[in-house]
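From the pipeline queue, job 12 of 40. The input is one protein chain; the requested action is below.

Action: predict structure.
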Amino acid sequence: MRSKLILLAALLMGIATTVLFFDYMKKYDAAAAASETFVQVAAAKQEIKENTKITGDMLLIVRIPANAVHPSTIKDPALAAGKLAASDLAAGEVLLANHLKDQKEEAMFVSKKIREGYRAVSLGVNLVQSVSNLIEPDDYVDLVTTESNKESGTTESRILLENVRVLAIGRRMVEADATTPYVEYASVTLEVKPEDGVKVVNSDEKGPVSLMLHSRIVQEDGGSEP
C-alpha cells in the first residue's frame, strides 16, 4: 500500500512539474517576443516578372525581426519604384539591392536582356510596319511576312512568328517615360530562338515584314508571355 502511495505522489509531482515548466516557457516566449525589435522593409505586393518596371502600387511594407535583416535589404519602397526587376519576384518577397537594376544601366547592354537560349536579331521597319512607331521595348509582337509571286502576280501574307519579345527599338532598350524625347526609328531588335532568327533574316530578304502589336494588359496578366 505504501509503495502505491509513493508511486501516486511521484506521478502527481511529475505532472505538476510539467505544467509549471510549460507555463514558464510560455511566459518566456511571450516576453522574448515582446522585447524583439522589428524593422520595416519593402516587399513585393504581388508577383513581379523579370524586367518589369516597378511602381509603388506593386510594393508594400512588412515588419521582420531586426536580426533577420540582410545588409542589402531595401527599407524604403521609394528606392525601388521606377527601377526594373532583375529577376522574378514572388508575392511577399523582401526586396534586396540585387533584385533591382537601373534603366540607364540596362540601356547600355542589350546582351544583358537576352534570356538564355535566345538570340537578338534586328529587322528593318518603316512607319507602317512598326505600328506607327508605337512599339516599345519589352512589348510582344507577331511577325507577318509578305511575299510576291512574280509568275502569278499575286501577293501572299502569313504569320511567320508569334509572341516575340522586343528588345530594342532603334538604339533605345528601355520603355519611354514622360521625359524621353520622341525619335523615329527604322529598326526593331527582337529576341528569338536561333532557328527563328534564320527565318526572320530569310523573310526580310524576300519581302517586307510587318509587326502586329500584342496587348500590354494581357502580358501583365501572364496570358500571352511565354
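Job complete. The longest helix spans residues 2-35.
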